[in-house]
Amino acid sequence: MSKALDGVRILDFTHVQSGPTCTQLLAWFGADVIKVERAGEGDATRGQLRDVPDADSLYFTMLNHNKRSITLDTKKPAGKEVLETLIKQCDVMVENFAPGALERMGFGWERIQELNPRMIVASVKGFGPGPYEDCKVYENVAQCAGGSASTTGFDDGPPLVTGAQIGDSGTGLHLALGIVTALYQRTMTGRGQKVLTAMQDAVLNLCRVKLRDQQRLERTGVMEEYPQFTSGAKFGDAVPRAGNASGGGQPGWILKCKGWETDPNAYIYFIAQAPVWAPICRVIGREEWITDPDYATPRARLPRLMSIFATVEEWTKTMTKFEAMDVLNKFDIPCGPILSMKEIAEEPSLRATGTVVEVDHPVRGKYLTVGNPIKMSDSPTDVTRSPLLGEHTEEVLAQLGYSAEKIAALREDRVI
Ligand code: CAO
Question: Looking at 168, 201, 294, 382, which residue is catalytic?
């Protein structure tokens, strides 16, 4: 079956996590992704957090499926020549070098345009234009600068970073959308363009609701769905950390389930959604709350939310998170188990949909990865293993028109 991006050739100049997330998605949609890595070294993540001696790490393998790898020293004149050939024959260049690195290599936007005016040049940088534009940035820096850390955690604790890689993978996802949009525009204009996603911007986009709350706070001085309102704590002048409160208009909290004393994930997320208030009261054995004016309406419940959750927790503690899910779902009461990575890895339904995939690798053997979360009926994703360093150098150079002798000479000169 054909793939959505069949025929699109990507010069993948990415490394670490943010850029590779983007190009992996494009590869899953069918693009021919040629990962250009430094001869002899490759993407630094190949050797980071290794769990199998001498094998590419899971860090690398899980971000570089379905790509081809070539080695190239782009600082040597012969390497620059190969890069020029690649630029002429590719549709998109994706890069996430430190600010200015591409220009220092001699491949700024103007030069790339000269070589190929149809080329889309897509970049991840830590910050957009402004005071921090020259800074190098990693995941947690972006989470902090994008507003996530200041709004995550509990009021009496420090700012917290989240395990979801919203700075790296979140930015890669944004960039992929920019690239396919630019490819679409190019079908009409014939021109390439620059696509930039700053990690700070991507995190802020994902924290949109918190900028909403900042403005609500400035206007009204209070936010009733925040735990501070229930506890009577004072609001300051910036959005506070909301603990496990639900971000929307329906209050929620994380509650203990049976086994919580020994299992760190024996918890359920429970939402006291207004339309199902009566079933909630019946399920937990507090039928009198259905008509009690102190509990009957969402507004009346607001100042009592934490004690309501404590009462519901007395009930959730009597069963496992899955048993509680079964009961609550019967009454359409929104809730969700706190799943550990172990439970997710073993979940048969995620395997069945290709969201969790087992991949075989010639050096490291079988491992699990996260497959394509975007399912398309006419462009299915087959996850294939990540390339070994330089595995496709000869193949790609031959496709670009290099003779066997020329390739041998490049190898001799350590250009590839
Ligand atoms: N041949 C020759 N040189 C190469 C090369 C190749 N194939 N590929 C890269 N290089 C060179 C670059 O040209 C650069 O050289 P100069 O510093 O002389 O210009 C050098 O390698 C190092 O690149 P870098 O500065 O990007 O790498 P770093 O490890 O020092 O920094 C990072 C890493 C991620 C902090 C930085 O790349 C960055 O800020 N990127 C943008 C933001 C980003 O994507 N962050 C997410 C990282 S994932 O957590």
Answer: 168
Whole-prediction pTM: 0.96
414 CB under 6 A from ligand 1?
A: no
Question: 39 labelled as ligand-binding?
Answer: no
* Integer Cα distance of 5 and 12 in angstroms: 15
Ligand 1, atom nearest to 135 Cα: 39
Q: Which two tokens stand for residue 231?
A: 């506890």
Burial state string for 203-231 with b = 16 or more CB within 10 A and e = fewer than 16? bbbbbeebeebbeebeeeeebbbbbbbbe
98 is in an annotated binding site: yes
The residue contributing the CA closest to ligand 1 atom 47 is: 138
- Element of type H or E holding 361: strand 356-361
- 275 has pLDDT over 90: yes
- Interatomic CA distance for residues 205 and 131, integer angstroms: 20
Taken in order 89, 94, 95, 100, the sign of the CA dihedral is: positive
Residue 217 annotated as binding site:
no
* Contacting residues for 168 by C-beta, under 8 A, at least 6 apart: 16, 17, 18, 21, 138, 139, 142, 199
pLDDT digits (tens, 9 = 90+) for 214-271: 999 999 999 988 989 888 899 999 999 999 998 777 899 999 999 999 999 999 999 9
Q: What is the pLDDT of residue 361?
A: 97
Q: Is 183 left (phi over 0), alpha (psi -120 to 50) or beta?
A: alpha
Contacts of residue 271, defined as CB under 8 A and 6 or more positions apart, other chains included, come to 246, 250, 251, 252, 333, 334, 335
Q: What is the pLDDT of residue 164?
A: 97
